[in-house]
Amino acid sequence: MSELKKSHQPIFDLAIRTADMLVKMFGSRCEVAVHDFADLKKSLIHIAGNVTGREIGSPITDLVLNELAKQKMDVEDIPNYKTQSKKGNIMKSATIFLRDSDGKVIGALCINYDISLLMQFGGEIEEFINFDENQVKSESFFTSVQDVTHEMVEQVLHGFKKAPSLMSLDEKVECVRQLDEKGTFLIKGATEYVATVLGVSKFTIYNYLQKIRTMNEFQTEVLAEHK
């Protein structure tokens, strides 16, 4: 072994330890290869895990060769790219180039992670979490019936952009109409609460509701006559 090769040894030792650690961390679907570019025909000097089916002494890949064809300082690490094994498995891959103290590229640490099964699961998960976009609904979850009433009233009042004390009679009637549509008054005690918020008596709320329901019945009858 030449003096130059000996000076590279600590770099490759660290790369090999890193490869082993990554596979121990990420499991059998992970493969990490260490290449020594001293001989590109048999550059693979260490492989942890086995996703691509290669052995020690295998040659460098075409992708790495394409990068090595560049000027020394133009060679860049290649993160997060898609590759495929001979068996057809899809992998996420990354290549980190190893350099000596002079900045010369002397090897590479190449990571391949088989994501074929994850892609299959991903398709099933995507189907499961898919929503009917035509069903736009909003639902809140409460711990008390008072919270339900409060939230429904707040939602409706927000649309008026003003304090209840500044609302006109028609606006208060419209507020009650919207609350009735939401089913607010099916909740016991809601009438009293809405009356307090709007600054009227609960009997006034009853009158609003009677007016609203009478108008709804009239509109229904008119529509029926014109069919």
UniProtKB/TrEMBL annotation:
Domain Transcriptional regulator DauR-like HTH: 150-209
Classification via InterPro entries: DauR-like (IPR039446), DauR-like_HTH (IPR039445), YheO (IPR013559)
Record domain YheO-like: where: 16-120
The protein, known as: Transcriptional regulator
Organism: Cytobacillus mangrovibacter
